[in-house]
């Protein structure tokens, strides 16, 4: 039995859900169905949205808006061919409906044809009375195309329509940051704050821009204003703590991190930062206490294990350091920094084979720092493997062909391989590149430093200078 809407007073959504629980059928206006469907889709309840579409089309079979919502769900579920056929039919009925172009644009976007999507969205803009959502979609399409300037302009339009559209505001700042236009971001945010002086989100973002420019006092003031605007804004306290750390004001930084813990459940990141501050203050027991709290709170936070590793490494307790760096590697074995740290610890423990393996892993994962090549060379030389040392240095020279330290090391390896002629050439190149780094050869290969021909080259260089 169909009931008139007046017989069951209440909001459309509550009434619709009541209908689903009974055998009764209630009548809704098409606009009510649109509101119900939007509610479910916006809250991720797609199955209920689909039920509302089905019932809505039974009651209003000619409603183009309900059919377009059906298309929207089809696109969301990647039923693109069906959606396109439905749009073809709808366009014959209403060719000036901007939603048809929006859904066609969504289909092209799903197919990674973002240029076509943009063209259709501009057509929708020509037809639309309310362009807010279209500018948001255009912004996202331009982001897909890496056109950050046009993306930024469209998200700015969204913010101009709705000053509390923080999602678009974040996207505007993201575009500024990607283009490394921190000054532009600062100008934009200050202008925004002229109109919205108590917007904690804008103050927070402004503080991050000042931090990026190393304008730390200005950053601190911005985070303070964010906290004044919302004294429960955890992100502002946390970022303020980071700035205070940079300024060496560690006790104040700790207070801000502790505030984040008092407002909400403790986080591993807050414990980690508190531990780092205590470490700077030489409160070793407290530092260790908070580092252990970090990994207890989140055993998968590899940075926590790394912090404990560094703590013991500085204490020269290399066995404990090795235990904890292995914990970090087990969590993220693709992190070249962890492998390099593992290599350094094994080197300190004189586990040269393990250090060799760890350096190889670090390089394979993209760590091409100069110090890596030099340390790796020193490790394999401890294993009396001069050939491998030479190969490692050759790889290093591909990245640093004019680095004197590498050429001094090549000289030493040539001499170990009894290749005197090659050694003379590499030593001459090294000393011409940087005579001031000669000490690295003297320290690394003291057994060769007093060779007559080496002393002759050094004397000749001194006379020439």
From TrEMBL:
The keyword Transit peptide does not apply. TPR repeats lie at residues 98-131, 234-267, 302-335. Keywords: TPR repeat. PANTHER family: CELL DIVISION CYCLE 16,23,27, CELL DIVISION CYCLE PROTEIN 27 HOMOLOG. This is Tetratricopeptide SHNi-TPR domain-containing protein.
């Amino acid at each position: 039995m169909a009931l008139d809407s007046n017989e069951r007073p209440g909001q459309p959504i509550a009434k619709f859900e009541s209908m689903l629980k009974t055998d009764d059928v209630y009548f809704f206006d098409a606009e009510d169905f649109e509101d119900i469907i939007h509610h479910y889709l916006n809250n991720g309840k797609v199955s209920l949205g689909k039920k509302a579409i089905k019932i809505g089309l039974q009651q209003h079979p000619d409603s183009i808006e309900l059919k377009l919502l059906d298309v929207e769900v089809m696109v969301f579920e990647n039923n693109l061919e069906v959606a396109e056929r439905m749009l073809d039919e709808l366009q014959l009925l209403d060719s000036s409906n901007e939603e048809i172009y929006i859904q066609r644009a969504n289909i092209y976007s799903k197919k990674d044809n973002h240029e076509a999507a943009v063209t259709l969205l501009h057509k929708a803009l020509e037809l639309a009375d309310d362009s807010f959502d279209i500018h948001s979609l255009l912004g996202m399409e331009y982001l897909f195309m890496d056109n950050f300037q046009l993306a930024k302009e469209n998200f700015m339009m969204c913010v101009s329509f709705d000053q509390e559209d923080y999602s678009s505001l974040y996207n505007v700042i993201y575009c500024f940051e990607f283009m490394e236009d921190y000054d532009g971001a600062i100008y934009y945010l200050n202008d925004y704050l002229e109109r919205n002086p108590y917007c904690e989100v804008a103050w927070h973002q402004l503080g991050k821009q000042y931090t990026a420019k190393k304008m730390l006092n200005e950053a601190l003031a911005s985070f303070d204003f964010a906290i004044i605007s919302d004294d429960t804004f955890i992100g502002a306290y946390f970022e303020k703590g980071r700035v205070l750390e940079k300024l060496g004001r560690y006790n104040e930084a700790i207070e801000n991190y502790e505030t984040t813990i008092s407002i909400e459940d403790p986080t591993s990141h807050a414990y980690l930062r508190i531990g780092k501050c205590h470490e700077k203050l030489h409160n070793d027991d407290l530092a260790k206490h908070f580092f252990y709290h970090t990994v207890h709170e989140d055993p998968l936070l590899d940075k926590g294990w790394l912090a404990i590793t560094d703590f013991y490494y500085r204490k020269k307790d290399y066995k404990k350091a090795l235990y904890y760096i292995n914990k970090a590697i087990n969590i993220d074995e693709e992190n070249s920094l962890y492998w390099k740290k593992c290599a350094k610890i094994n080197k300190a423990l004189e586990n040269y084979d393990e250090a060799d393996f760890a350096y190889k892993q670090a390089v394979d994962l993209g760590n091409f720092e100069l110090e890596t090549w030099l340390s790796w060379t020193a490790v394999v030389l401890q294993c009396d493997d001069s050939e491998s040392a030479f190969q490692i240095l050759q790889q290093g020279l591909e990245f640093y062909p004019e680095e004197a330290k590498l050429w001094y090391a090549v000289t030493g390896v040539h001499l170990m391989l009894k290749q005197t002629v090659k050694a003379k050439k590499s030593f001459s190149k090294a000393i011409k590149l940087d005579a001031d780094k000669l000490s690295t050869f003297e320290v690394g290969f003291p057994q060769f430093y007093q060779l007559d021909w080496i002393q002759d080259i050094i004397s000749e260089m001194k006379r020439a200078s």
